[in-house]
Design a protein that fits this description.
The structure is a homodimer. Helices cover about 40% and strands about 15% of the residues of chain A. Chain A has 24 helices and 18 strands. The first copy, chain A, starts with 7 loop residues before the first helix and ends with a helix.
Chain lengths: ~600, ~600
């Protein structure tokens, strides 16, 4: 059937019974692609019927759909002319994992972060009203996303705007892991009473409210959607679905099957063997530390998997583990409060989501100098490569915030040594930026457990002519470059591991001009506003030439890390060529 | 009576009748200081009885009070050993306008941004519980602050934490201006039913709820506070107060008297005559523009005064004005949606509050390239000087975000010319950074209404030896320096107004080394991660020396702008001396 559905109009020609067959077919297509390709499994399997019913009743792209996070938009893509990207293996990567206006006029926004859909939809509705247009604006948000403050802000202003905005709350009783927070008490009560309980946050703030008990029943969905279509005021439809619906093991272990690598569709067994990574190592480490220090508490904003804090570890941690829900802003203020009270919070978070917290980092945490610990994961070209989840911005983001000490370890041993130190520090907040790529061990690393000499760079090898500052991930590359310069060019460079990226070692840098004519920095992020530029600026009046390597300000999408690096001159060969060329010019 | 109250213990010795007299005395003290000194009037007059009752019932600093925004903490300061800063004119400035741990152990955090108190308090409670301590944690939040998502996130996690946390909701039915958003429908219903209506967002998410109809009645306050003291689970007390209570004109025009300059306490007349400023000019401009363009909409996040959008202008604007409440994050997504729908949003905002939106600027707006317009006010050393409201960070903050074009006008004419252009641009978001200090007119400025040649710097005067890049506020200083170099030193520098600060003019900069040996940048913000560093980095391999002027990464508090600038070498004399000294070295 899917072959004949080139756009939503083709769908509208079908009888409701046929829609049911179609939903089975789509579910099978999803399972086939996902088991071969990986992706968001649970969220999309839950959305099959809702999406079919939406496209059956509403008229996209005239009517506007906004998907929260948009990781649940696969069925929408299938129904809007992009089914081949799900049925034809050679075309799998023709579509992104999120809505993408460059793919289709049915996609309104590039979205990947949580809790934004209601605010964006509210804006669409306002823009529509100003122009006296009449289309429906429909926002789809999962129960997990409802923990984010931006969602609440969106709900409030949708009511204020008081015109057609249809909020679909897809309640599968799960965030990525289980839900946490007061709002979920109300959702539970609403489910238990089939939407009838009087105490209802949505009606309390002004929504017309509908409840659909079975979000996989096309008849109920279509009935209610028809009812609210062209409504003149804000409506919220609370729909219960089953995450992973139709895939046995995904229904059973919803957390594991939120997103996954390719798998055997019969057994669920993963087709990928992963090396042990910093996530798992961090989980082991924190789990052990919690046992010996009852004042220590691990905090996550709904992504316990970032530090491999699986159910066992969470249960074992008990009160020493807190999942605050998807609300990074709260998380930062929360850990600031914990640290102020004299306990020790440790908060592992993806680089891309740390972006949500600039003001909380600055005001709630840094200004108050409370000694919380934050671990930043996937802050690297080797991290997530979807344009919505890039880990390239955090160095620049943090660069202007006073009072926070940011550490950039270069290997496993240094990372855990810095972690040890951070848990003991009582005077200021510390951020540790986990290196990108595979776990790198340096058994010779001299652990000191002490990084209190702030901004003191570490000279690994003293040399002359050229100094190499390799930051975090790229120290290893600098080391290789240094070795090759010695071996092949008889140049012995100075090799520096700065360790700190929240400030510069002014004494060390002042000495650089004495016997170097060139200084190179390589950082794992955007150059603009980054760490290297601090050094270029500081040495701006000196005779030393400075070259900052990094990624130029941009939003690269679904790139291959090595290609992106090479495009920007970041490979051993390119950098050695650059050094040789410029040292020769100097010698002329 | 106040003389005998050196700390909260002295308060506890009084009879309730005496407390009532004390409240009158404190109110008079507040009015006296505020009329001489200026400050937050309405919020503090509303909090007199609540604060007295809190200190009467609870035991600060053992029990912990967290004030949202903390602009309503004056009475708390008076009762905790700091009354002289309110009664003795020579000591007025011994205290800041916000809670400040360096002033007193009764102050837990430096706070100035909205909606953070619940999250911070939740952290304190968690830290307390981990250490098996038993103090009360009390968070005080105004109804206005409840529109911010971080407050909602805090409410949710307080319930999750499920131990003693007492939330005091001070409901004076006002934000800075009037409230906007769905949540206020529920507050209204609760007030109308004296807290009895069944639909109650606070009980819905799990709070024990108390309602106090008269927040100026000490008996009711003390009774309920005693009841909830040492509670074992989260409690919310909804207290109705009158903003500006006890000062007739402040009760009458609550918006005007939220904060004010010194005034005549009998008439309310201002003691300060203000020059016309960019705020007022912007209000006039937008008000006119709205009339001629029905697709244009002015958006504020609860600070209409930032563009002098008083009641008359708001009413006149009708649907073309939206106050979203205190939620900057939502505001950015909202304007992105409006622009996507084809209408034109314009969002004036304080620099300090733009900090809350890094992720929304990046993901919701920039990634989607929707042509919204943002005007940044007080992004300057000449802006707000409280450490919690600094306008020094936005240049660095924006520096790493792709796709946004940021313009830095240097005078009134250029500012409005850029605004004209921004309203016509349909391809990308534009941020305009209003210059700091007094309005500067340059009647010779050639308005083009076109800034679509992105990152094209403007050479105001061609010269040699030294190039001066004066950004926004500081272009005028560079112009003066240039003139003096010509007059007194026979050096004719190149003078550049970059106009764009979201990118650099590579062609222009590549030519600089041809006949300059020194380049100076001066920007109105933190150097680290700022605009000047982009230039230092770009010219890092050239023979030109680069000196970046700005404020080093720090949190200066209640500074005098000229002093702060001079400390950092930013004065005409200092910069000329620097130039002369360094040009001579070059000539040696």
């Amino acid at each position: 059937m899917l072959e004949n559905i080139k756009n939503p109009n083709d769908l509208k020609k079908l009888e409701i019974e046929q829609l049911s067959l179609l939903s089975n077919e789509i579910r099978q297509v999803l399972i086939d692609k996902l088991s071969n390709h990986g992706g968001h499994i649970g969220p999309n399997l839950a959305m099959v019927e809702i999406t079919i019913a939406l496209h059956y009743v509403f008229n996209s792209p005239y009517d506007k759909f906004v998907f929260d996070v948009s990781h649940q938009s696969y069925v929408h893509k299938i129904l809007t002319g992009r089914s081949e990207a799900f049925t034809d293996e050679s075309k799998y990567d023709n579509v992104s994992g999120y809505t993408n206006p460059s793919e289709s006029e049915h996609d309104l926004f590039e979205i990947g972060h949580t809790s934004t859909s209601l605010s964006l939809a509210c804006g669409l509705a306002k823009g529509r009203d100003l122009q006296n247009e009449n289309y429906n604006v429909v926002a789809l948000i999962g129960d997990g996303s409802l923990s984010g403050g931006e969602a609440y802000e969106g709900l409030n202003n949708i009511i204020e705007n008081n015109s057609n905005t249809i909020v679909i709350l897809n309640d599968n009783q799960m965030s990525i892991a289980e839900n946490h927070g007061g709002i979920y008490k109300n959702l539970q009560k609403l489910r238990e009473t089939k939407g009838e309980c009087e105490n209802n946050v949505f009606t309390a703030i002004g929504f017309d409210y509908y409840f659909i008990e079975d979000g996989h029943d096309l008849n109920s969905l279509i009935e209610i959607f028809k009812k609210v279509k062209n409504c003149k005021k804000p409506v919220l439809i609370h729909i219960c679905t089953i995450k992973g619906k139709g895939l046995n093991f995904a229904e059973h272990d919803k957390e594991k099957w939120h997103w996954n690598f390719p798998f055997d569709k019969n057994t669920g067994e993963s087709k990928i063997n992963l090396d042990i990574d910093y996530n798992e190592l961090t989980g082991q480490y924190i789990s052990e530390k919690l046992k010996s220090n009852s004042n220590l508490v691990a905090v996550t904003s709904a992504t316990p998997s970032v530090f491999a804090f699986n159910k066992d570890r969470r249960e074992q941690a008990g009160k020493q583990f807190v999942d605050v829900g998807i609300c990074e802003e709260h998380a930062i203020a929360f850990i600031s409060g914990i640290a102020k009270a004299g306990a020790k919070p440790i908060y592992p978070v993806y680089s891309s989501f740390l972006q949500r917290t600039y003001d909380q980092l600055s005001q709630d945490l840094a200004l108050n100098k409370n000694p919380a610990v934050i671990i930043v994961f996937a802050g690297s070209v080797y991290g997530l490569n979807d344009v919505t989840h890039l880990g390239l911005f955090d160095i620049s983001l943090l660069n202007s915030i006073p009072n926070i000490v940011t550490l950039a370890p270069t290997c496993k041993e240094e990372y855990f040594d810095m972690l040890e130190y951070s848990l003991k520090e009582t005077s200021f907040p510390i951020i540790i930026r986990v290196p990108g790529g595979k776990v790198l061990s340096n058994p010779n690393y001299k652990c000191t457990g002490d990084y209190s000499n702030i901004n003191k760079f570490k000279i690994e090898k003293e040399g002359s002519k050229v100094a190499l500052i390799g930051i975090g991930t790229f120290f290893n590359l600098c080391e290789k470059i240094a070795n090759e310069l010695v071996t092949n060019y008889k140049i012995k460079p100075t090799l520096i591991n700065p360790q700190f990226i929240s400030g510069i070692d002014k004494d060390l840098l002042r000495d650089i001009p004495k016997n170097h004519s060139l200084l190179i920095t390589i950082e794992d992020g955007i150059i603009d506003g980054g760490f290297g530029q601090n050094i270029a600026s500081f040495l701006g009046m000196s005779n030393v030439k400075v070259k900052n390597y990094g990624i130029p300000k941009s939003f690269p999408d679904r790139f291959i890390a090595e290609n992106l690096l090479e495009e920007n001159g970041i490979s051993k060969k390119q950098i050695i060529d650059f050094i040789i060329k410029n040292l020769q010019i100097k010698n002329d």
